[in-house]
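Handout, page 2. Input:
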Amino acid sequence: IKVAVMGCVVNGPGEAADADLGVACGAGSGVIFSKGKVLRKVDEACIVEALTEEIEKFEIER
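Output:
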């Protein structure tokens, strides 16, 4: 599984479109994305938990 950690919500998902999953953060929130498509937006306090949940889902689907 390839996970990207990006610093920009606007460009991050596109720049890391080859990643299976990723996270890109902004001011107070972030997005979880897969293959360049945003899956969901989350508060910064929940970003690690949300990414972990998506990784677990991804592994189950594989």
